[in-house]
Recover the amino acids of this structure.
């Protein structure tokens, strides 16, 4: 499943390729699951809209659109969540349409943006079909923009394990399992610790660690952008070397203690019992 750094990388790659282009028409598949807005609303917002910008909001890809009508300009947004297996492809029409293609946006440049998702946990929606609609916002705070004081305020006093709190999308938007484990390791905090038991100093460290792991992963992902967006295949990202995630039983890279795995709220959590308290 793509996590925040991958979504950021994909959004930047899409922006480079399609900003300034205009969506002329949209084709939608017959499977209803991927569509969170009605086909009519999707067509209304997307067709004849210029793509101003593509950016990440939480784990969503947002296309900011503008439509120049006879009377006035209308702003809209195309919001895509990749789910487990979703991909956005920028391609030319001669490229075979992959199985599990749910949407094709045809662009004025002659290219197409295709949404392909075999497992159908991904979602497409639009904002702006009705004049009153506000622009799309993720439910929680943006982790890369959150200030230390705000971060501390979000987490202090919570009775849940800190790992669960990090994954709670209503607090921070877009932090997934891998980067939560990696951030907790760097901050020296065990995933099962109650958020309320952490000191201000520990929360400060955790805030810095969350931003650090996400920024490092984004920096690594940058070099593989075009591959991911263009290819119809399996090109992955250069991943951050995981220090704990997925390393159960392997020696801690700092102290050599075997990494432990526990399940917290149904999710695997990995930590070093020596380095993390
Ligand atoms: Zn260790």
């Amino acid at each position: 499943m793509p996590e925040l750094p991958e979504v950021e990388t994909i959004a930047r790659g899409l922006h480079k390729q399609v900003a300034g282009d205009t969506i002329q028409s949209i084709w939608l598949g017959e499977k209803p699951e991927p569509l969170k807005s009605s086909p009519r609303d999707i067509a209304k917002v997307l067709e004849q809209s210029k793509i101003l910008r593509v950016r990440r909001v939480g784990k969503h890809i947002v296309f900011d659109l503008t439509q120049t009508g006879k009377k006035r300009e209308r702003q809209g947004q195309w919001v895509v969540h990749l789910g487990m297996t979703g991909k956005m492809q920028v391609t030319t029409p001669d490229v075979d349409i992959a199985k599990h293609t749910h949407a094709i946006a045809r662009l004025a440049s002659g290219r197409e943006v295709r949404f392909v998702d075999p497992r159908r946990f991904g979602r497409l929606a639009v904002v702006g079909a009705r004049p009153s609609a506000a622009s799309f916002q993720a439910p929680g705070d943006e982790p890369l923009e959150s200030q230390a004081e705000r971060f501390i305020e979000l987490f202090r006093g919570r009775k849940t394990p800190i790992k669960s709190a990090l994954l709670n999308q209503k607090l921070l938007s877009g932090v997934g399992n891998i980067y939560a484990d990696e951030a907790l390791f760097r901050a020296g905090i065990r995933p099962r610790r109650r958020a309320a038991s952490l000191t201000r100093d520990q929360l400060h460290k955790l805030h810095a660690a969350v931003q650090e792991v996400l920024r490092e992963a984004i920096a690594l992902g940058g070099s593989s952008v075009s591959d991911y967006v263009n290819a119809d295949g399996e090109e992955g990202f250069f991943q951050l070397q995981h220090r704990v995630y997925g390393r159960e039983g392997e020696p801690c890279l700092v102290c050599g203690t075997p990494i432990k795995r526990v399940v917290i709220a149904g999710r695997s959590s990995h930590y070093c019992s020596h380095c993390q308290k």
